[in-house]
Design brief:
The protein has 3 helices and 9 strands, in the order H-H-E-E-E-E-E-E-E-E-E-H. It has about 250 residues and is α+β, with helices and mostly antiparallel strands. Strand 1 and strand 2 form a beta hairpin. The protein is elongated, with a radius of gyration of 27 Å.
């Protein structure tokens, strides 16, 4: 949405500049040569009508072009995600797999049983050439896809870890310390059956959540909101062992 609004704003600026320079002059040219008896007020009104009609045509054309470009960009992003999902599913075959749930949202599901304490997913940093990496990875800024590893450090994980959903009653936790890839391992908090969706508690890694707030995990113990460790510190520390919380939050 932000990109689309920004693009529309750019289109309006370009349109204003172009109309002010070219099409006002065109309107003036069209009234040259008319009889001297034509009322000046009528000519001014006609000129304004011509400019308004031209602006409307140009804006509609630019808006359609912008919309088409955005739709194409969205399709390209979907294609990239589909390819990344396919690659991840092949790499993790027999362990976990990514698929869409009944609501059409991506999730990660087990392909075999896991016992409590075992590593279910060991993630890596998303490569710098990925379309999702705008600046650097790690980064000092967060986004809806990132996970926090330190007070001022956020990373983008590869799939399947990046598609792990939140739960207030999760079956996974992060390991306290980062793995050798400078990313997180995800550990089974209990025995997990084959075919279960695996989730972790976002407030065990994020000091403050800004991308969204309402929680839709639907478990009986749902906290209703996801605000971050800063706001639910006591709840998180009571619920989890420190080894299941990002290390920087408990130092």
């Amino acid at each position: 949405m932000a990109l689309r609004l920004a693009s529309s704003s750019l289109a309006r600026r370009l349109l204003t500049n172009r109309v002010g320079r070219s099409y006002t002059n065109l309107a003036a040219v069209r009234v040259v040569g008319r009889s001297n008896g034509v009322c000046a007020a009528h000519e001014n009104g006609r000129r304004e009508e011509i400019n308004a009609a031209t602006m409307k045509r140009q804006f509609n054309w630019r808006f359609m072009a912008t919309s088409a470009a955005q739709e194409q960009e969205d399709e390209d992003d979907d294609d990239d995600i589909d390819l990344e999902v396919q690659e991840a599913n092949e790499r993790c075959s027999g362990h976990v797999h990514i698929k869409k749930d009944n609501f059409g949202q991506w999730g990660v599901f087990t392909s075999r049983p896991y016992t409590q304490g075992s590593v279910v997913i060991s993630s890596n940093l998303l490569p710098a050439n990925s379309n999702l990496v705008n600046e650097s990875n790690p980064s000092t800024t967060s986004c809806s896809h990132s996970i926090q590893t330190n007070w001022s450090t956020h990373i983008l994980m590869d799939l399947p870890a990046r598609f792990l959903n939140h739960s207030c009653e999760p079956n996974l936790s992060v390991a306290k310390d980062l793995n050798e890839n400078q990313s997180y391992d995800f550990i089974a908090l209990r025995d997990i059956n084959k075919g279960e969706e695996v989730r972790f508690d976002y407030e065990t890694t994020e000091y403050e959540v800004g991308a969204f707030e309402d929680c839709a995990c639907s478990v009986d113990s749902c906290r209703g909101t996801i605000k971050g460790f800063k706001h639910n510190r006591d709840v998180i520390l009571e619920k989890y062992d420190e080894t299941n919380i990002a290390g920087y939050l408990t130092k």
